[in-house]
Write a sequence for this structure.
């Protein structure tokens, strides 16, 4: 951990117990006092806070659609993106092996660390302070939600659009995988022959690259 006061300013919460913050940022590869129990707690609190926020924002959205919106917000990719923006990876305490392999950039470790951080804030400051912290960090994502798409991912949205018009499903092809195993970038092509649409997506996983390619393809269909 480095520049703890600066990190606290970034997340918008100052800990009463720095030991809790230290534990939240300790990966199991580093030692016995790691963050997995805090991660378990933080995951539950995060789901509760996001569920309440969606319930209050989207009064006319059905339960199933609210569930999909929540799943879209609390998935690993979103959590890792937020954690990366906070510089959480630089604060993590990792074992030598994880450190050498670039674990501080791995989406799963970043996402778990963010959930553990929420768990630590809850123990340190209570539910209201945790709710404030979660909503502050998730606000940009909440503001950009489109309830008309019910939180469906881009591949599902594109597939349903094509099926509704009796068109063949898109074809996805892996074009390239670059970088070391711990920090790869994938390039995937999405092709819809009947519409003459071909797009390319990039991401830290094949799935993420496919989602990006599908999003771009859906935009080119002109659908709303």
């Amino acid at each position: 951990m480095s520049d703890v006061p600066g990190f606290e300013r970034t997340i918008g919460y100052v800990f009463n117990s720095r030991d809790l913050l230290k534990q939240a940022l300790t990966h199991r590869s580093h030692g016995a006092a790691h963050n997995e129990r805090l991660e378990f707690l933080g995951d539950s609190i995060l789901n509760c806070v996001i569920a309440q926020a969606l319930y209050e924002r989207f009064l006319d959205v059905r339960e199933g659609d609210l569930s999909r919106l929540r799943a879209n917000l609390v998935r690993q990719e979103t959590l890792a993106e937020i954690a990366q923006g906070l510089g959480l990876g630089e604060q993590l305490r990792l074992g030598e092996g994880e450190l050498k392999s670039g674990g501080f950039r791995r989406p799963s470790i970043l996402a778990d660390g963010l959930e553990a951080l929420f768990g630590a804030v809850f123990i340190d400051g209570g539910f209201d302070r945790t709710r404030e912290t979660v909503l502050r960090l998730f606000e940009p994502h909440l503001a950009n939600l489109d309830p008309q798409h019910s939180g469906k991912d881009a591949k599902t949205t594109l597939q349903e659009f094509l099926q509704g018009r009796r068109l063949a499903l898109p074809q996805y092809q892996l074009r390239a995988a670059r970088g070391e195993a711990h920090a790869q970038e994938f390039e995937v092509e999405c092709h819809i022959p009947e519409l003459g649409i071909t797009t390319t997506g990039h991401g830290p996983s094949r799935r993420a690259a496919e989602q990006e390619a599908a999003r771009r393809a859906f935009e080119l269909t002109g659908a709303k």
In short: The chain has eleven helices and three strands. The first strand starts at residue 171 and ends at 178. Residues 36-57 form the longest helix (22 residues).
